[in-house]
Amino acid sequence: MLDRRRNTSIKTSIFAHCVIAFLVVPTLMVIPISFNDNQYLKFPPTDLSLRWYEEFWSNPDWLRATWTSLLTACTVTVLATVLGTMAALGLSRMVGPGKKLLIGLIISPLIVPTVSLALALYFFFAKLHMVGTWVAVILGQTVLALPFTVLNVHGSLQSFPATLERAASTLGAGPVTTFFRITMPIIRPGIVAGALFAFLVSFDEFIIALFLAGPGMTTLPVQMWNTMQLYISPTIAAVSSMITGITILAFVLMTAFGRRSKAK
Amino acid sequence: MAKLSLTNIWKTYGGAQAVRGVSLEVESGEFVSFLGPSGSGKTTTLSMVAGFISPTGGNIRIDGRDITNVPPHQRNIGMVFQDYSLFPHMNVAQNVAFPLAMRSVDKADSARRVSDVMEIVGLHGMGQRLPIELSGGQQQRVAIARAIVYQPQILLMDEPLGALDRLLRERLQLEIKQIQKRLGITTLYVTHDQGEALTMSDRVCVFNDGEIAQVGSPVSLYERPESRFIAGFVGESNFLSATVEDCVRCGDGWQCLLVLECSAKAKVLASQPFSAGTQLTASIRPEHIRLCSVDCAEDANTVFVTAKVNDVVYRGETSTLRGQLESGAEISARATVTDVARFTGETVRLRWPTDKIVLLNK
Ligand SMILES: Nc1ncnc2c1ncn2[C@@H]1O[C@H](COP(=O)(O)OP(=O)(O)OP(=O)(O)O)[C@@H](O)[C@H]1O
Ligand SMILES: [Mg+2]
Fold this sequence. Notes:
- The structure holds two protein chains of two kinds.
- Chain A is mainly α.
- In chain A, 80% of the residues lie in helices and 0% in strands.
- Chain A has a single domain, classed as MetI-like fold.
- Chain A is globular and about 70 Å long.
- The mean pLDDT of chain A is 88.
- Chain B is elongated, with a radius of gyration of 25 Å.
């Protein structure tokens, strides 16, 4: 009886590890490939080399794409964080069925397939003659990032005692002062988490950038796609490794930040 | 130091009336408490004075200035909440200095005032602690310090001691009262606890169902309740139905002869004449009802009844006898002797002085 249970738990454990491996290994495979001194994407690597990283850092196209991506992601982060925080503040003060509906609408970009969203945005911006502009890419990606900031900030507002704002108001603080001096410092973990998600959403967003960006506004994922159209170069693996590295770093930072603010 | 006046304040939520026509004048430096059952509109009224919600009707003035539509941060009001509401990310000194910073008080002056007020609330030297590093009682002291450091015109407190244990509550009651007197700050104090209201207040304002049922000094409220609700809510009372036999002029009042429901007769002073046959309620406090010892000499100024004792509740310095009159009415009496438990199940004689009877309209 006990034996059988142990057997089952071993089987479960093996299965779980297989699933995790399936999720992680393909992503991690690109890292050794990127250090391979071979013309072709080959695993396992034959000779170690940094030539594909060198190739990346000496190619102006890659550098420009990186710069565009960073600039876009930062702008989207700022926009989505400011808008999302304001929306979350409003939502947290709402009662009744309107609130649920509004939350549903705001997070709908998570549900609607991104291709459909991108297509819809394409037609929308076409009407406004904005396809191919940087603003269109920014706005499109902000729509995609907004659910993350709204949900994170709204979540941290759930545990925020409403009487603190009342207390601040009797003490002489107007609404704006109250937000910056009282509310924001307390819900900062939610805002930071939302901002990081927004950054990551934009940084590796591909479809909207592909549909809406004009020439000279190629972001990193789009540049990868363009490169792959011509030939498969291990440079792609090097770029992937670096993006993965940045993403992991961001999450580690976020976790560390969350833990510190909780300990406080 | 300001006079507060509420004039015919109404507050309705949809169809529900939370506050119905409250009018109240609070004198400069006065301590007025709001007492009443849950849901009677105390917090709602206080919130309108603070400015968190705006009245559906009526107006609120401080020293004659109409503040009905002034936002809370421009009212110069101090408020202490039941949950303390200290800012968790600021230390104690920063919390207390916050209202001074909002008023652009310079650093040195602010530091001096913070340290003065910390002295007043007995928290000297705790400025560097965070709120979570303090006990509930200490947190509430910080909240009080923060609410008085800028000398607001009015101080509002909504059940500030509700979350504390009894001993601490009694100590803080005295301290709050002392601070309030010393600063002479006009105060509105919401409480569930009638003992608290009676010990701390200059006047108590009893709410019932969104209205003020009676306002008065603790003594007048306890000794001259104007309605059955007040007589039963502030302290305990026995209610007996009484029929007026006749009233005669007596000094500048009237003396009425009543027949109580236990068929005992009593001569009671009244402020107005009642016509014969009027049905009234006679209210008597349990502590005025005594157990008769062996010789219960008849006396015109004493009412005697017989009652069957149903049970005796021991309460330390007194015991409460609960019994039933022949008419079926329940009656409770306080006995100061300790061996009254033996009367359980027996029929006893009870008496009380006629001048302790308060006449109430039905
Ligand atoms: N936002 C609101 N919406 C609808 N009804 C409300 C609202 N706030 C209060 N009420 C109603 O108004 C009435 C008075 O409430 P209030 O909070 O003033 O009572 P209270 O005397 O402070 O009670 P307690 O002693 O329990 O704190 C209650 O019946 C309550 O249900
Ligand atoms: Mg209340």
